[in-house]
Design a protein that fits this description.
InterPro entries: SAM-dependent_MTases_sf. The protein is an alpha/beta fold. The protein has three domains: about 1-235, Growth Hormone, Chain: A, CATH 1.20.1250; about 265-370 and about 390-455, Rossmann fold; about 490-685, Growth Hormone, Chain: A. It has helices spanning about 10-15, 20-45, 50-70, 80-95, 120-145, 150-170, 175-190, 205-230, 270-275, 280-285, 300-310, 320-330, 350-355, 390-395, 415-425, 485-510, 520-540, 545-570, 575-590, 595-600, 600-630, 635-650, 655-675, 680-685; strands at about 235, 240-245, 250-255, 260-265, 290-295, 315-320, 340-345, 360-365, 400-410, 430-435, 440-450. A hairpin with a 2-residue loop joins strand 2 (about 240-245) and strand 3 (about 250-255). It is globular.
């Protein structure tokens, strides 16, 4: 095969920045902008807190269209900063809160809708995200013909890693969105700047100033105003806002995340007086709780109650550093300043799996994250807390005579029964179930390490025939009653695919351009499923924290980059052999149970998990690199692959029916389809 570089196109030759740094900058900006859009739109449009991959799918569509548009237009993509400015205006003018009262959907709350309806605002966000990302993608795509295929792909991956690193650093610093806007404005300014011929054509400065500089600076100004006037704290998960006041002459701090009332910092005495559920775990547990673990410690009220009930040691686990910081500074009882309290900023399930401590009382204190793990279509931050395996982990961390309890507003009676039956399956006996209020199904579920360690009030009647079985680590979808994909998702995904087909035809021309790259399209479908399985698997093994998520995404890109470097520098086996290695890796990942990985010590678990997860990813990208290197039209081939990733994002929802492990089977079938569509001329040459 030949990897000769093509003659540079006129746009590249005219650009003042050399092709390699331009490609790194454009690809880094593309990924950074995608992450920023997902994060920022979700903080202002609450629908997107539960449809995080909605913007991701729009981004994939836009990136694919950007590559397919290369060669069809010589004008620079000035439309991207203009549409971004329009999107920011719409989102800030029409923020949304949501009435989540549909039983089949994976969320719940009692709030009502304020702002545009979902059927209006979601298409606007989806289409705007696609158009915005199409601009940077087109700039990346224009660099590809100027370099050998794999060299271009290599620099694209390096830029993507830089984009993840930049966004991760800003998340670590809790930087408000104005900094995201500044980076976007700078990237637009550099990438869309007039080229070498600009001095001979002053007219080229007019579109640059009007379509790049003005909208970019306007976006920065709008985001600065939001950052200053909202008084918000930007955690890696939420936009956190709070207000302080008094209720019945008691100081109260109301905390909202992404526009949803989430927690209250209230003195322990007042909370116990106002709501009975907070004291019931201590009444149902026989042993006086001296050592207490609180998962979902948040602003500190549950910690303050534990201290008031005589706890001598409290481990307070909270996933969000800003909620913990807010509790430390605003809670009237100052529980986090007490020397008996130790704070752990981590995922609750991960803490249970790692700690060797034993407790008199383990409490899941309203752990409802109100958001999904980025990059996973249906996994919430707390999903792995409510599985049967998690309840067993909690049981194993109890002292003899200790007790476990959880409370929340569960909304549906079947949800209370499902959780109670999950606890029953894990502990081996019926728990105490106290429905404190039927309005919102405010309930407390308590189970002693043994039946003698709990003292119940009225006996729980037990699960009914209509109660769903306990959720498990493979299908951790607590709020999904039936093994099905809710209609709202099916309708939405169907519309997304229909719009995508139309957009590809309008922007990229006839579909026959991509027909020779049908196998690359399927490689994109399967790889997105493989990536989703990796994200969810590492979330279970190491926690759903943003740090773990960033490391996994970076690790995937490193594995892809390693595959490209191996393909560039060494003679690799033929494609049929590599497909065999890929399928063997998928079989290994399917055979290795999560329970076995969780039983390993943490260092050994990390080694085993990386090996199992990244072997098929590495093999899949050797397959892609070998095939991509021989393509006649690199930009069209890459665009087809990215559009396949968008379809793979839609297929993620199959996990609601078959579980995350089942996605490996779907991925294997799709990879076999890609092998079957491999051009005959390519297989022997490889």
């Amino acid at each position: 095969m030949t990897l000769q570089a093509r003659k540079p196109v006129s746009e590249g030759a005219d650009h003042w920045l050399a092709v390699r740094p331009r490609l790194v900058l454009a690809s880094g900006f593309m990924l950074f902008l995608e992450l920023a859009l997902i994060r920022w739109t979700g903080s202002n449009i609450v629908h997107l807190s539960y449809f995080t991959n909605f913007v991701l799918l729009g981004s994939f569509l836009g990136i694919g269209l950007g590559f397919l548009r290369v060669g069809r237009s010589k004008s620079r993509p000035y439309y991207s900063p203009v549409v971004l400015f329009g999107l920011v205006i719409v989102v800030l003018t029409f923020p949304v809160t949501v009435d989540r009262d549909t039983e089949g959907v994976l969320y719940w709350t009692s709030l009502h809708t304020a702002g545009p309806p979902a059927w209006l605002i979601l298409p606007v966000v989806f289409c705007a995200a696609a158009v915005v990302l199409m601009g940077p993608a087109e700039l990346v795509g224009r660099c590809f013909p100027e370099l050998p295929r794999l060299e271009a792909y290599r620099y694209d991956l390096i830029g993507s890693l830089a984009g993840i690193a930049a966004f991760t650093a800003l998340s670590f610093l809790s930087a408000p969105p104005v900094y995201w806007g500044i980076i976007a404005a700078a990237a637009y300014g550099v990438l869309l700047a007039p080229g070498r011929s600009a001095p001979r054509s002053a007219g080229r400065l007019v579109p640059y100033l009007g379509l790049v500089t003005v909208p970019s600076l306007a976006v920065v100004a709008l985001l600065l105003a939001e950052s200053l006037t909202a008084g918000a704290l930007w955690s890696p998960y939420y936009k956190v806002t709070y207000s302080q006041g008094r209720v019945l002459d008691v100081p109260v701090t109301d905390i909202a995340v992404n526009g949803i009332p989430h927690q209250q910092a209230v003195p322990a005495a007042a909370r116990l007086q106002w709501e009975r559920q907070y004291g019931l775990p201590y009444e149902r547990a026989v042993a006086a709780p001296k050592d207490v673990l609180i998962v979902g410690a948040g602003s500190g009220t549950d910690v303050a109650i534990a201290l008031s009930r005589g706890a001598s040691r409290v481990d307070a686990v909270e996933i969000d550093p800003k909620l913990r910081e807010l509790g430390g500074s605003t809670h009237p009882d100052r529980p986090y300043a007490d020397p008996r309290v130790t704070t752990h900023i981590t995922d609750g399930r991960a803490f249970l799996e790692r700690t060797s401590a034993r407790y008199d009382l383990i409490l899941f204190a309203l752990p409802d994250s109100l958001t999904l793990v980025s990059g996973a279509s249906s996994l919430r931050l707390e999903s792995y807390l409510f599985t049967e395996e998690a309840m067993r982990a909690a049981r194993d961390r109890l002292k003899p005579g200790g007790a476990f309890a959880m409370y929340n507003y569960y909304r549906e009676s079947w949800l209370v029964d499902r959780l109670a039956s999950t606890v029953q399956a894990a502990f081996g006996h019926r728990p105490c179930v106290d429905v404190v209020s039927t309005a919102g199904q405010q309930a407390v579920i308590t189970a002693g390490a043994t039946p003698a360690a709990q003292r119940c009030g009225p006996a729980w009647a037990g699960a009914t025939a209509a109660t769903p079985p306990p959720a498990g680590d493979d299908r951790p979808f607590l709020y999904l009653k039936d093994r099905t994909i809710p209609p709202i998702y099916l309708i939405t995904l169907g519309l997304i695919l229909a719009v995508s087909l139309l957009a590809v035809r309008v922007v990229a021309g006839p579909y026959r351009r991509m027909r020779p790259y049908a196998d690359l399209f399927l490689l994109g479908v399967a790889f997105l499923l493989l990536e989703t399985k990796s994200v969810t698997g590492f979330a279970l093994l190491f926690g759903t924290t943003w740090v773990v998520n960033a490391i996994v995404f970076a690790g995937v890109l490193v594995a892809v980059l390693a595959a490209v470097e191996v393909t560039r520098r060494f003679r690799t086996p033929p494609l049929p052999v590599m497909y065999g290695v890929l399928l063997a890796g998928l079989l290994l990942a399917w055979l290795v149970p999560n329970a076995w990985l969780l039983s390993l010590p943490l260092p050994l678990r990390a080694v085993a998990a990386v090996t199992v997860a990244f072997l098929p990813i590495f093999a899949a990208n050797v397959v892609f690199a070998k095939r991509f290197a021989d393509t006649a039209d690199g930009t069209t081939a890459f665009g087809a692959n990215l559009l396949g990733a968008m379809v793979g994002g839609c297929l993620e929802y199959l996990a609601l029916v078959i579980g995350y492990q089942g996605l490996l089977i779907v991925a294997a079938v799709v990879y076999l389809g890609a092998f079957a569509l491999l051009p005959r001329s390519t297989a022997p040459a490889a």
